[in-house]
Amino acid sequence: MVVDTAAADLRRIERDLHDGAQARLVALAKGLGLAKEKLLEDPGAAAAMVDEAHGEVKVALQELRDLARGIHPAVLTDRGLDAALSSVASRCLVPVEVAVDLPGRPAAAIEGIAYFVVSELLQNVSKHAGARGARVEVWRAGGRRDAGRRRLLLRVSDDGRGGAGAVAGGGSGLAGLAERVGAVDGVFVVDSPPGGGTVVTAELPWRDREA
């Protein structure tokens, strides 16, 4: 199932690149070409076209940033969840405490899902929560001897306005995160009473990273 999820993610990335940033950049190149042709005969029109192209560049960059959040960053590959999530937290618009307590690194696919989920949740905190602060906690639960019962736990909490809604109907991409977690037989729970802040907990199967 992890393989199927990875394949679906690859198709999504290819589609988003083709329909979004790539199409926008092609149109941008054409627009700049027309502006170059008009530069001598109509400088005012050329300037207006360059100004419009500048705006398109900003939109394309944002689309690429949004897309990149779904791809493993180098810091995750090289240094694991602690460093990668600390990096994500540093870009949040509110102060975020990060506490990662793991005996080792989980399988790359599980680690990637954990990173993506926390990344998206912190984006939600920045954009929608109206919070003054947030906290990210990551730890492993389960017995040392029974590997099949080990789980990777994630908790992202904030002191914002709450009201994020139930998993199935929640806004800000919560349903998509629940689907991603469920694809690996994980559990995704949202506790977000109006005015009471939001706590999102995700539970993923722990699989040891292959040497």
What does it look like?
The protein has a 5-stranded mixed β-sheet. It is built from 6 helices and 5 strands; from the N terminus they run ααααβαββαββ. The chain is an alpha+beta fold and 211 residues long. The chain has helices spanning 2-38, 43-68, 74-79, 81-90, 108-129, 174-182, and strands spanning 96-101, 134-141, 151-158, 187-191, 198-205. The two termini are 21 Å apart.
Q: Helix share of residues?
A: 40-55%
N-end to C-end Cα span:
21 Å
Mean pLDDT: 80
Strands ordered across the widest β-sheet: 1-2-3-5-4
| Strand residue percentage | 15-25%
Return the string of H and E elements: HHHHEHEEHEE
Note the main sheet: 5 strands, mixed
Overall 3D geometry?
Answer: elongated
Strand count: 5
Summarize this structure as a short list of keywords or feature phrases:
alpha+beta, five-stranded mixed sheet, 52% helix
Task: Give a short summary of the structure.
The chain is 52% helix and 17% strand. The protein has 6 helices and 5 strands; from the N terminus they run ααααβαββαββ. It has a 5-stranded mixed β-sheet with strand order 1-2-3-5-4.
